Amino acid sequence: MVVILEVTQIMVVILEATQIMVVILEVSQIIAVILNSASHSGRSTNWSTDSNANSPYGGRSSSNDANDNIRSPVRGKNSSRKQKNFALNSPGSPSPSPPVSKAPPGDQQHIFRDNPVSNAEKMLRDISFEVPVTPSQGEDTEKCSICLHRIHEVSPAQSPTSTSRGLVGAVMLANCGHCFHCCCLLPLLVTAAQSFSCPVCRTLHGAVTGTQPVGGRMSSKVENSSLPGFKKCKTIVINYHIPEGKQGREHPHPGRPYVLNGFPRVAYLPDNEQGRQVLSLLKIAFDRRLIFTVGHSASLNQPDCVIWGEISHKTFKKDNKFGYPDPKYLDNVMLELAAHGITLKY
């Protein structure tokens, strides 16, 4: 009987121990559930706060930026850092990063940019941005098409004089994105007036100016009549006035009076959206002295006359050659204006 009693007590102890183990197991499961829940919650919070970083746009808006096509000096790559540096005047954008024209530590390009001492230096400053390149980029960098060395290398044209002026390193032309050594590009600007064509793609940089006599006046008004081919809109009438005067140094015979024939000159545009755009571009062209020039008049067979320049005008409301209808005129004149560096974005 004593043995049976002891065995019974041992079994009771085992049963109590089993119950304790069950309780411990349940507590462990509860703790595991709590920890797992907390882990999932943490991952969800991180995904939410970093969702932009994980997006295909790298935290930027998915809309196309105006400067997304700006090229990097590293071949075959686009640099978002440089795109931000070049976004200097994007309307509605956040404050831009410091422009690349600000020299990095140890560089001296800011010398000529802050204080240009010649027209060539001033034009180089106005039409280009500094390109920060390092020797570590090596073969990945483009070649300067002038000296044929890579832009991370020192140009053969580098001299103590150009170094003292900060004409070191490389620059990127703003309108086309081609890169050159600073001191290679500068000599090409010495003979430029106010504009320059890229040696690679011939894109214009700067403002093209002409030889139109100074002191002229351009005005416009809208008439209720319509032009052939534009029956649903009114007509813009442009008047050009050039005062009497003498030829300047830019003309064939400086100091000699020029001949005014047929002034004020009149031209016509349809009063629609594209016609108004052309009018605004023609005003820029007139201010840049591109509408007229001084030369030989074919119709009068006379020299020293104020004649039309290279931008076409419709001087008759209805005419097969100099008037309407001409469905391609507005597109063609915008191309002519663009060839002189005048487009809707300027």
TrEMBL record:
Q: List UniProt keywords, sorted A-Z.
A: Cytoplasm, Metal-binding, Transferase, Zinc, Zinc-finger
The pathway noted for it is: Protein modification; protein ubiquitination
Q: Where is composition skewed (Polar residues) in this entry? A: 41-70
Q: Which InterPro entries match?
A: Deltex_C (IPR039396), Deltex_C_sf (IPR039399), Deltex_fam (IPR039398), Znf_RING (IPR001841), Znf_RING/FYVE/PHD (IPR013083)
Residues covered by the RING-type domain = 144-202
Q: Which GO terms describe its molecular function?
A: ubiquitin protein ligase activity; zinc ion binding
Region annotation (Disordered) ranges: 41-113
In this chain, composition skew of type Pro residues spans 93-102
| SMART domains per record | RING
PROSITE patterns given for it? ZF_RING_2 (PS50089)
Protein's GO biological process: Notch signaling pathway; protein ubiquitination
Domain of life, per lineage: Eukaryota
EC number(s) stated in the UniProt entry for this protein: 2.3.2.27
If you read the UniProt record, what top EC class would you report for this enzyme, in one word? Answer: transferase
UniProt similarity note: Belongs to the Deltex family.
Supply the name of the protein: E3 ubiquitin-protein ligase
Organism the protein comes from: Hyalella azteca
